[in-house]
From TrEMBL:
Residues in Isopropylmalate dehydrogenase-like domain copies: 6-348
Disulfide bond found in the keyword field: no
Protein name stated in the entry: 3-isopropylmalate dehydrogenase
Cofactor (UniProt): Mg(2+); Mn(2+)
Length: 355
């Protein structure tokens, strides 16, 4: 085997290690068939480590993680840890310091998955959101004045740099070209109210668009996007937007594709280490019961292989997931799948080996 990928694994909290276990099972099946090798290094970053040691990420973590071909994350979130500590200390820190400046979120309805939209099926819901991942309102710029008094002021600033905006837009145009579906890229913003930030986004969008004459570029306000996701999801191919709007519309996207149990995402640094994860939370109440749905983690593994250049194996995993959703799963909800977590992973791995 000439191709070897070193994958850093952060199982995280709750059911995270359980879904990652099934994702690894499928990755190993794909590697055996695809003629490459995957090697895994496990890290215990998460709520459990924090409660034991008071440490979120050790000083050596970033240099260690940078050495990997990619990272595979289960879930971060512990009921005994105050909200924000793990999210900022692990997720945001990794995104910012490893410069994972694109959040990539496919929204695709698979066969057999219930969709909450009337008369919409797999042919109608198949688009991708490219979200800027390191700037905007999540940059942490701002602060308090007179905190805790009746005159308290809280300021949270949206930081948008020309460099940050342009590199995200270029990634989106390139991705839309590679995807080669409708070759349509939609900028999602709010130019009528957020006149500074989205003036920059819109100007750069149409400047870059001139370099991609085969891509049709258009614009829509974020409130219109949310309406059209529900009414006409078939209108979309690739959507690009800022950090906050991307955070919001991708959760709506997850719901119209059937729920968090099938939604996967990637935090992308095209020139460095990227991280792939299921979008659902740690679901601690289901920990150890073998009833959590692992398909989103398995789909995240497929995204990782695609990013690493193993397109054939990534496509094979997606086909295998479609076989399982179409033939074996009653529901994507934990405890209602009709099969266990490990059975779901076994089914996908078997389809990968035999399709």
């Amino acid at each position: 085997m000439s191709r070897t990928y070193n994958i850093g694994v952060i199982g995280g909290d709750g059911t995270g290690p359980e879904v990652i276990r099934e994702g690894i099972k499928v990755l190993e099946a794909a590697a055996a068939l695809g003629g490459f090798k995957v090697e895994f290094t496990h890290y215990d970053f998460g709520g459990g480590r924090y409660l034991r040691t008071g440490e979120v990420l050790p000083e050596s973590a970033l240099s260690d993680l940078r050495r990997h071909s990619a990272l595979f994350l289960g879930a971060i979130g512990h009921p005994d840890v105050k909200p924000g500590i793990l999210e900022k200390g692990i997720l945001l820190r990794l995104r910012f310091e490893l410069d994972m400046y694109v959040n990539l979120r496919p929204v695709k309805l698979y066969p057999g998955v219930d969709c909450p939209l009337k008369d919409k099926g797999p042919k109608d819901i198949d688009f991708v959101v490219v979200r800027e991942n390191t700037e905007g309102l999540y940059a942490g710029a701002g602060g308090f004045f007179k905190k805790g008094t009746p005159d308290e002021v809280a300021v949270q600033e949206s930081v948008n740099t020309r460099k940050g905006v342009e590199r995200c837009l270029r990634y989106a145009f390139d991705y839309c070209k590679r995807r080669n579906k409708d070759k349509k890229l939609t900028l999602c913003g709010k130019t009528n109210v957020l006149t500074y930030a989205f003036d920059l986004w819109e100007r750069v969008f149409y400047e870059v668009a001139r370099e991609y004459p085969d891509i049709k570029g258009d614009y829509a306000h974020v409130d219109a996007i949310t309406m059209w996701f529900v009414k006409n999801p078939e209108w979309f191919d690739v959507i690009v937007t800022d950090n906050m709007f991307g955070d919001i519309i991708t959760d709506l996207g997850a719901m119209i594709q059937g729920g968090m149990g099938i939604a996967a995402g990637g935090n992308i640094n095209p020139a460095g280490t990227s991280m792939f994860e299921p979008i659902g939370g740690s679901a601690p109440k289901y920990t150890g019961k073998n009833i959590i749905n692992p398909l989103a983690a398995i789909c995240a593994g497929a995204m990782m292989l695609s990013h690493l250049g193993e397109e054939t194996s990534a496509t094979l995993i997606e086909r295998a997931v479609m076989e399982v959703t179409g033939k074996h799963i009653k529901s994507l909800a934990a405890g209602n799948m009709g099969i266990s977590t490990t059975e779901a992973g076994d089914l996908v791995a078997n389809y990968v080996a035999n399709l």
